Amino acid sequence: MRKANISNANDMVNDYINRGRAKEVLHLITQDEAYNGHEIRINNKNYINFGSCSYLGLELDPRLKASAKNYIDRYGVQFSSSRTYLRCTAYQEWEELLQQIFGVPIVTFTSVSLGHHAVIPVVVEPGDAIILDQQVHASVQDAAKKMMINGVHIEPIRHNRLDILEERLRLLYNKFRRIWFMIDGVYSMYGDFAPMHDIITLLDKYQKLYLYADDAHGMSIAGKNGAGVIYDQVKHHRKMVMATSLNKAFAAGGGVFLFADEELCLKVKNCAGAYIFSGGHQVPVIGAGIASAKIHLSDEIVILQESLREKLRYCHQLLEEYHLPVLSNPLAPIFYVGVGLVNTTIQMVSHLHNDGCYVNAGIFPAVPDQSAGVRFTITAHHQKEHIEYLVSRIAHHYPRTFQEMGRSAQDLVRGFGRVKKFKRLIKGIPTNIVKAKNHEIQYESSIRQVPKQLWNELVGRLGANNWDQLLFFEETFSGNEKEEHNWEFHYFLVRNKNGEPVIATFFTEALAKDDMFAPAETSRHLEKMRQQKDDPYFLCSKTLTMGCLLSVGEHIYINKALPDWQTAFVVMLEAVQALREQKNIPVLSLRDFDAADELMKSFLIDLGLKRVNIPDGHLIDHFDWNTKQEFIEQLKGRNGKSTHDRRNYIRKRAFAFEDRFEVRIVKSATPKECAHYRRLYLGVSDRSYEIVGFTLQEKFFENVISHPKWELLELKLKPEFDNRKERRAVGIALSYQTDHLYSFLVTGIDYGYLNEHNVYTQILWQTIRRAKELKLKINLGITASQPKRKFGAKIIKYAIYVQNKDTFKDVFVNLLPQHESGIL
To answer: Do 438 and 564 contact (CB within 8 A), yes or no?
Structure first.
């Protein structure tokens, strides 16, 4: 399989956000001349606003506005100074009030996210470890990840799994000075709570365990003095650092960090970079914050909290009465109605927007690929009739959108089966995909069950994936000792009502490494971890892959001349998903698509897949040369002009060394020779971190040599260049030939001879010469792009589309070093 470059994570997020922008559900801006708390105007249309985090409605409270104006009149708009030198007069009153609310020492920052980056490097020290809840806020993860450079060990655990936390504590306990568990009080997407009582029990049980909590969405809505959801359940523990937001229900701005003792609080003020070097809060923020703090310290906060809770309970009750799949805690102001796929979610959000209800689309990266949903919030500004209207519109559009998009209730099982089991769903959701009736799907578990001529006409002509090649793979990757060497094959053909083939493809079920798309340094580090743990299957998953781990080129036939090809594709994908569920396979991968195909990109993203760019492919599709000189002369530069650099490279590194080698196509080999060929291959695979996979077994090399369509090209040095008693191959190329293509798939090199004799360059040259003899185009595969371009190979940009059942392993891999300076 191929690995993407370091930009892939950003590329995937960019794809999804741009998709939301195109559908006009993201990056919107209001057109309000004034704001009343519950109504906004976007694109010349009025909406009820169900997207605000100002849960108590204090942002419009006259007392906060008057206080902000008062402090502007007294101190101006800002007091521009580092607080290490000098603080505005108003700070003292504000921070004293905040300390009264929480009852512990506090430090304020201009935002919670900035505060995490300032506080974590102070409270977490070298010799400590960090365990992250899988769903802890991205700002916490980002700040924690930067601690790796200080030698801090970091790892995630599955969401709210304290049993796993305790297991990890026992394993890490004697290795680290302190172990920090990092959580949210209220999780910002699903609106569920952290199990605080159980966490405090563990804090008391394990001396080295410390807690770092972010209660941004819990502030004000619960707890004495509005101190938050966490403080509503437990008191501040002596081993806890807590952050919360003053920018949401508190309705002022910035964030506040809470400490068990004054000494640690002062250390943060003295050492936190964002406190020392950044400007303080704007004066009107402090003024509004003072007024809000006074409300929190009065009996009024209890009335405000209870009024909000009544609305939350009412909304949750209505959602359940309609049998909508709500995932949220009944006391959370964040509501999440599960949908499943991105395109269904965006369509539903669009319908709600058309009805004047502004809600959010919960999509990747905030939630897993198949777990998109409608996210909305309830605030004090909403009346019961607003809530009734929203829930009724969700209930109206929910089954209709599933029908409209041709989706089924199975999407909910796939997207949320690990999170929650829904007792009963709203009527009208199809049990099967709606558009399947016009197509017939054929499934086979072996290529033997598919007519050879038909397969080769459809898929076999696209790349090196003809009938004979697949039979070779089936026979080679079965009945082996190790799990990774046993693959199961699945073939799908979709025909329309006229019996015409619309889709044909195959998938391979195999164990693969979860870092196959990660940066090289991440994979290098993971390989070390696997060796240290003596566990070659650490961070590996069963994967259902279009094509297989050795195939190249296009793997799917699509008759795009037929107008219903997208429907046929959905029918095929639904059958694949059903197989995936039956086999409990966590990762789905569709490869290799034209990276420039924007239609396919949009289509597959809507179906809940993430696009991953992979290393370039290389193709030589013309052989209008007969001599080496003619080969040199036909080389072209990137702009179509002849290039001295390429010609010089070929002369000096290929032609000048050609006479040093004996080259042959191996027709038979002894077991000893096969073992040597595999050692050459391991010499390459053990050094490659751009492509990370399990190594091929000796059986593969034995079968290649005996197969009529495979060729093992062997390079030996002539006696005058090899002083060993027994001359052996110093390089090999394993290639597969079809009627139209010669595909270079596997190589092996003796690195003791690599540079002195330019072995790899010679492998490329001799493989190209062999393709010329056979009069076939040659696919030179991926990686090693620079020397392949020197030989005139065209660059082919590929993309694959991936879907994971959850984000846990992604979180784990993303926490690993991505460059050589990273330390875990």
So the answer is: yes
In the chain, the number of structural domains is: 4
Q: 29-39 pLDDT, tens per residue?
A: 998 999 999 99
Q: Which residue reads 């046929």 in tokens? A: 568
What's the pLDDT score for residue 370? Answer: 86
Q: What is the mean pLDDT of residues 38-63?
A: 96
Q: Does residue 674 share a domain with residue 717?
A: yes
In this model, does residue 629 exceed pLDDT 70?
yes
Give the helix/strand (H/E) hosting 216.
Answer: none
Domain that holds residue 128: 62-296
Per-residue burial over 99-109, b = 16 or more CB atoms within 10 Å of its CB, e = otherwise: bebbebbbbbb
According to DSSP, the residues that pair with 804 across neighbouring strands are 587
Please, are residues 584 and 578 in contact by the beta-carbon 8 Å criterion?
Answer: no
3-state secondary structure of 640: coil
Would you state the pLDDT for residue 723?
86
Element (H, E) at 713: strand 710-717
pTM for this entry:
0.85
| Same domain, yes or no: 370 and 455 | no
Nearest to 812 by CA among 5, 131, 119: 131
Q: How far apart are CA 326 and CA 349, in angstroms?
A: 15
Q: Contact, 281 vs 324, CB < 8 A? A: no
> Mean pLDDT in the chain?
91
The DSSP H or E segment spanning 80 is: none
With residue 703 as reference, give the H or E element that holds it: helix 698-706
Beta carbons of 462 and 451 less than 8 angstroms apart: no
Helix axes 138-145, 112-123, angle to 10 degrees: 40
CA dihedral sign of residues 775, 781, 787, 790: positive
Residue identified by tokens 């707890």 is: 223
Q: What are phi and psi of 276, to 5 degrees?
A: -75, -45
Helix, strand, coil share (%) of the chain residues, nearest 5:
40, 20, 35
Two structure tokens written together for 606: 């809507």
- The one-letter amino acid code at 594 reads D
In tens, the pLDDT along 760-770 reads 999 999 999 99
Strands 106-109 and 255-258, bridge-based pairing: antiparallel
Regarding whether 328 and 291 lie in a shared domain, the answer is: no
Residue in 151, 728, 779 with CA at minimum distance from that of residue 464? 779
Cis peptide before 592 (omega within 30 of 0): yes
- Both tokens of 94, joined, read 């504000």
Distances (CA, A) of 230 to 183, 222, 326: 11, 8, 22
CA of residue 459 relative to chain centroid, distance: 30
Residue 678 domain flag: yes
Collapse the DSSP code of 687 into the 3-class scheme (helix H, G, I; strand E, B; otherwise coil) and give the result: coil
Q: Tell me, what amino acid is at 456?
A: N
Residue 585 near residue 578, CB atoms below 8 Å: no
Assess whether pLDDT exceeds 70 at residue 433. no
Q: Facing residues of 748 across strands?
A: 732
Domain assignment of residue 13, yes or no: no
Q: Give residue-wise pLDDT tens across range 410-419.
A: 889 888 886 7
- CATH of residue 767's domain is 3.40.630.30
291 and 346 belong to one structural domain: no
What is the model's pLDDT at position 818? 54
- The closest alpha carbon to 810, from 387, 483, 516, 470, belongs to 516
Q: What is residue 326's DSSP assignment? A: B
| Chain segment 439-470, per-residue pLDDT in tens | 999 999 999 999 999 999 999 988 889 999 99
- Dihedrals φ, ψ of 423, to 5°? -65, -45
Q: Determine the Cα–Cα distance for residues 592 and 600; give it in Å rounded to an integer.
A: 12
- Per-residue pLDDT band for 3 (boundaries 50, 70, 90) equals very low
SS3 for 787-815 is HHHHCCCEEECEEEEEEECCCHHHHHHHC
Query: pLDDT: is 728 or 520 the higher one?
Result: 728
Return the CATH number at 363: 3.90.1150.10
Q: Based on the number of CB atoms within 10 Å of its own CB, is 655 exposed (0-12), middle (13-18) or buried (19 or more)?
A: middle
Report the SS3 class of residue 325: coil
